[in-house]
Amino acid sequence: MSFDILKGMATTLKNMGKKPTTISYPEQERQLPPRFRGRHVLHRYDNGLERCVGCYLCAGACPADAIYIEAQENSEENRVSPGERYARVFDVNLLRCIFCGYCQAACPTGAITLEHDYKLASYYPEDLVFHKEQLLEPRGQSSVGSNTVWAESAPPEAAQPVPQEKEVFDGSEASAAAVGLGNLHPERPVLLVDEQQDEDRRKLP
Ligand code: SF4
Ligand code: SF4
Question: Higher confidence at residue 92 or residue 200?
Fold first, then answer.
């Protein structure tokens, strides 16, 4: 019997008495970490007005081009938000979204947060474009969502890993640098400057 087989069997024996790490989903569900980023929620103020002022900052910050907004002016007859404008249309395409949370970080009014809803599977792609009516909190249930969690300082286990090349993380490079990839140069231009790619994106409805 080769040494590798013995090593494999030893690993099996070592783990035989341990509690399984798997759970029987969907009957059982894991408790999610407080900073888990699931499906977006649009928030209201306590007086029922919508926090979103249709500024497009979230859409501009989104690296996946997943947010579509059409803003409209508020009027005295139809005041929807406290600002000059509100979002008449607010769609989030969850097929494009990478749940990075940049939209939440960019929002100046705390209008959009990523919450704990992760059950997002569907047979139909159109079901995964969430519209404002689905994203907006009901009246009388206003909250600030996960903004409270993100306002606190990060737990120690969320610290950036030390980059493999420099051995020191000085915070001056993006998170790719934190895992030692920041200094690698792409072999060919990235897709955003690829004309073919840009053309494809323009053709999308
Ligand atoms: S979580 Fe990231 S990818 Fe998703 S909509 Fe927000 S900014 Fe875009
Ligand atoms: S969700 Fe926030 S960032 Fe996005 S348009 Fe509304 S107010 Fe602006």
Answer: 92
Q: Which ligand is nearest to the CA of 147?
A: 2
87 lines ligand 2 (CB under 6 A): yes
**Do 128 and 183 belong to one domain?**
no
Nearest alpha-carbon partner for 135 in 118, 116, 112, 119: 112
Supply the residue whose CA is at minimum distance from atom 3 of ligand 1: 97
Nearest alpha-carbon partner for 86 in 116, 125, 44: 44
Based on the fold, state whether residues 177 and 90 are members of the same structural domain.
no
Considering the domain boundaries, does residue 191 fall inside one?
A: yes
Q: Which atom of ligand 2 is nearest to the CA of 54?
A: 5
Residue span of the structural domain in which 196 resides: 160-205
pTM over 0.85: no
